[in-house]
Amino acid sequence: MRIALGLSYRGAAYLGWQSQPSGKAVQDHLEAALRRFVGEGVRTVCAGRTDAAVHALQQVVHFDSPVERAPFSWVRGVNSFLPPDIAVLWAQAVAEDFHAQKSAISRRYRYVLLASAVRPAVLESLVGWTHARLDLERMRAAARILIGRHDFSAFRASQCQARSPVKTLHEIEISCQGNTWNFDFHANAFLHHMVRNIMGCLIAVGSGAQDTEWLQNVLMARLRSLAAPTFMPDGLYFLGPHYPVEFGLPEPARALPVLLA
Q1: Catalytic residue at 85?
Q2: Reduced 3-state DSSP string for 36-82
Q3: What percent of the chain has pLDDT over 90?
Q4: Residue 152 — pLDDT band, cuts 50, 70, 90?
Q5: What is this protein for, i.e. what is its function (predicted)?
Q6: Residue 199: enclosing H or E segment and its boundaries?
Q7: Cβ atoms of residues 56 and 238 within 8 Å
Q8: Residue 9 pLDDT more than 80?
Q9: Hey, what domains does the chain have and what are their CATH numbers?
């Protein structure tokens, strides 16, 4: 029986999604909880691997279960074995051809940024931070350059395992309320560090350190060395994947908790 789970986690304490020899990844904790609940080991596949310290509002995973359980039992049972900063949101039996990663048609991320002279304290690890003053229209103009189907090699980590650097970036929405900025990214798929590398470039343009023509040149050159440094993982949230409607799975989250909204 193939099961899909919706998962939420605060990533600050973990070395990303993918299993690590140290056992300090989200996947390690989820599979340990599933083993205790099911009674034997199962291997999970996720919709999108998140980096160390990156959060998720609705990560989706699938696995093949040797036992049958009601959906509410998967939620309550697995959660009883998970640490408090990881939680199963929902569970659903799916067709055998469902694949959490390959069946997804797009994915969404949000970066929450505090632009302030003083670093965050209460929201430490939950928001990114810059002391620069940012120009909204400059960043929106820069973001428009990246929309569409492009080779995003300039925004790709050297350890990225994606077969192709060509992705379709559907949308970047940027908004600001007070000194809190929201950057929403929607693409068919993302490369390793792609959002964080774009964030570094958008902040460089928004602060006046670079202009929009520079970002166009970075994109066209396809050289990581020409782009801005990778921005901090704090403040990055995987909102979740979109799937074809026939799978009947919940849509990605579109709103953050009120404290961060």
Answers
A1: no
A2: HHHCCCCCCEECCCCCCCCEEEEEEEEEECCCCCCHHHHHHHHHCCC
A3: 93
A4: very high
A5: Formation of pseudouridine at positions 38, 39 and 40 in the anticodon stem and loop of transfer RNAs.
A6: helix 194-206
A7: yes
A8: yes
A9: 2-103 (3.30.70.580), 106-238 (3.30.70.660)
